[in-house]
Model the fold of this input.
Amino acid sequence: MRVIDVMTRDVLTVGVTTHLKEAARLLAERGISGLPVVDDDKRVVGVLSEGDIVVQEAAAGAPRARLVGEAMTAPAITITRRRPISKAARIMVEEGVNRLPVVDDDGSLVGIVTRADLVHAYVRSDEEIVAEIREDVLRRTLWIDSETIEVEVEEGDVRLAGAVMSKSDAELIPTFVERVPGVVSVLSKLTWPEEPSPRSPAAPGRSRNGRARRVFRA
Done:
């Protein structure tokens, strides 16, 4: 599952010249904790959070910001819409943020993803998880015939069984499955053909490809 699948597309924004009082009013009225700050081309230049406003309230005796551009956190921590939501979750945890503006390749805003969005993705049904493993992980990402692999999911616990082409496939599949939202654990029983034993030295008069070769004698 990717960020584009869970993000909110209709995003409330402010500009750098928006008065800080007006931005604070929007946060309070809408019951949200942060706003992307965009320029005239809708490119994200920062984020204004409740914390940024609290900092201004705490600045007793010091000059306080009047405009959003003076109080916002910049540069903004963003994510592109095609990234997996597991990446969004890691960024939120590592950076200590509750939301990520979602941007296009040119940096223009296309949505926003919050921790609440990720929680909703985590509580998906077992059937949805099975479908994503078969369609997105096996077929589209790894180009593996999903019909040769058994996928069972119960309360987020995944069991994989069946035969794959190689040991590397058997090791790679569980790694990708672990990243699927809603997966709690992965038990892999995948098998693969044994590696062929090293070929013996070529017999005299024969090359390794079986063709006759010349033998020169002194």
